[in-house]
Amino acid sequence: MLASTVTTMQDNSAHGEDSFLSKDLGGGEFLDVVLDGVTGHGGEQASNELRDALDAGSLNNTEDIINLLTEMNSDFFSVGSGRFLLTTVSAVLGRGDNIEIVSAGDSPVFLINNDGHRKLSGNAGGFLHVGVARAIGASETLGAPAQVKITPAPGDRIFLATDGITDNMTIEELAEVIRDASTPEDASAQIEQTIKDRLQDGRVPETIGVRFRYDDRTGIIRFF
Questions:
Q1: What is the pTM of this model?
Q2: Residue 58 sits in a domain of what CATH number?
Q3: pLDDT digits (tens, 9 = 90+) for 4-56
Q4: 150 pairs with which residues across the strands?
Q5: I need a surface site. Which of 23, 58, 212, 214 has the fewest CB within 10 A?
Q6: What is the pLDDT of residues 103-129, one digit of tens each?
Q7: Does the pLDDT at position 130 exceed 50?
């Protein structure tokens, strides 16, 4: 696995329903996860319980992750009947020379480098009912999560985010900050400051709706 550095960022003051996990698996391997609990539907409990299960699990590949998500989906649905205990999840597993991505719901994962940026999974911005429909716990049978596998190169940057970030900064803005930053911590600080400034103003660029959306925000930035 390529050497990498990582930082996490979170402001859970809006609803307290985001969670994250950034776990060093040794030998440069890792597991990065962001979870966005569905507001008003037991999201805090769901995101925290799923985070803890991912932390405790023995996850060697995407099949292991999907099996765990399927098991947790069944547990959540048996209690909440698709109306309670709902959360989205995006996970990036670094094993060997590759990173494998699994997403259920709308929290996006981006690849950013000097050639540009591209969305590897999830969506960015807006109230995504389809994303909620695919949340863990929403259906008796878990729909097939999105899966992507890539081989990172030196200079690549991976960014996981919940919609508290992507609803208030465009991906173009985020990619520019992350691409130009010297460290993940520098990128995180610049993103946080931009969002805080926009929160004070109550406004965002017209391209993302003009009005600031106050929500929990969580991100993981990893530089290779």
A1: 0.94
A2: 3.60.40.10
A3: 999 999 999 999 999 999 999 999 999 999 999 999 999 999 999 999 999 99
A4: 99
A5: 58
A6: 998 899 999 999 999 999 875 544 444
A7: no
Q: Within 10 Å of residue 118's Cβ, how many Cβ atoms? A: 12
- Kindly write down the DSSP assignment for every residue of 47-59, as one continuous string: HHHHHHHHHHS--
Look up residue 38 and give its two tokens: 């569905």
Number of domains the chain contains: 1
Number of other CB atoms surrounding residue 180 within 10 Å: 10
Candidates 75, 79, 139, 80; CA nearest to 104 is 139
Whole-angstrom distance, CA of residue 38 vs CA of residue 15: 10
The residue range of the domain holding 136 is: 5-223
The angle at the Cα of 34, spanning 43 to 156, to the nearest 5 degrees, equals: 165
